[in-house]
Amino acid sequence: MGVKRVLRVAVVLSGRGSNLRALHEEAPAQGYEIVGVVSNNPGAAGLSYAIAQSLPSAIVNHRDYPNAALFDTALADALDQFEADIIALAGFLRVLGPAFIQRYTGRLINIHPSLLPAFPGLDTHARALKAGVHEHGVTVHFVTDTLDGGPIIAQDRLEIMAGEDAAKLASRVLALEHQLYPRVLGQFAKDLARPPR
Ligand code: GRF
User: Fold this and answer.
1) Which of 54, 146, 156, 185 has its CA 20 to 30 A from that of 23?
2) d(Cα 11, Cα 88) in Å, to the nearest integer?
3) How far apart are CA 73 and CA 23, in angstroms?
4) Model confidence over 111-137: pLDDT tens digits?
5) Residue 163 main-chain phi, psi, to 5 deg
6) 31: CA distance to ligand 1 center in Å?
7) Do the Cβ atoms of 103 and 139 come closer than 8 Å?
8) Which pLDDT tens digit goes with each residue over 7-35?
């Protein structure tokens, strides 16, 4: 009989950290643990949240590294000390290289504020409004070498309301993000707890 253990999640971010907060608040109910937070931005509000909550944290500032590959290596070194099962990108604003992505294949996930494959990249809410789509939402996906193009794990959708602007749409999508990301990790946690057949 194996020892039952809790899914270990490390979060990587660059900014506000509202998804980190949601992930952290829902962790006990969903059966996973936030074991570490890494920020490339020393001024990230998400990092302050981690510190205030006594979550183990690290800063790996991309400005301290001469190139992206060395930054990626330092990021991986910082992450590996947390011994996480899953690396959850949550508002991480750097593009990761192939070596990093390969090292965490199947364990590296991201949340993106659109219904992928629609609207990869930035400014998703304004672009959705401009395109005149009726539905918009959020996607959690595995990270691969294709930006915002990895296998989709889960999505949540909403209907765009008449006359709503990008800010209003962004806040409604963000509320969906805060529900979906913890749910996805809860599912990973359940899969980990399931005895092997
Ligand atoms: C979210 O909209 C997320 O989907 C995107 O970046 C934003 C991060 O927000 N990848 P926060 O830092 O979690 O508040």
Assistant:
1) 146
2) 5
3) 25
4) 999 999 999 999 999 999 999 999 999
5) 80, 5
6) 22
7) no
8) 999 999 999 999 999 999 999 999 999 99
CA of 145: how far to CAs of 67, 100, 104, 122, 179, in Å? 18, 10, 12, 17, 26
CA of 197 to the centre of ligand 1 (A): 37
Q: List Cα–Cα distances, 143 to 30, 96, 123, in angstroms.
A: 22, 9, 19
Which residues lie closer than 8 Å to 192 by C-beta, 6 or more apart?
Answer: 5, 7, 85
Of the residues 13, 16, 115, 141, which should be mutated to test ligand 1's pocket, given the most ligand atoms within 8 Å of the CB? 16
Q: Is the dihedral of CA 124, 161, 178, 46 positive or negative?
A: positive
- Pairwise CA distance, residues 142 & 182, whole Å: 15
Q: Which two tokens stand for residue 152?
A: 């989709």
Nearest alpha-carbon partner for 76 in 91, 67, 87: 87
11, 14, 18, best to mutate for ligand 1 pocket (most atoms within 8 Å of CB): 18
Does residue 124 line the site of ligand 1, with CB under 6 A? no
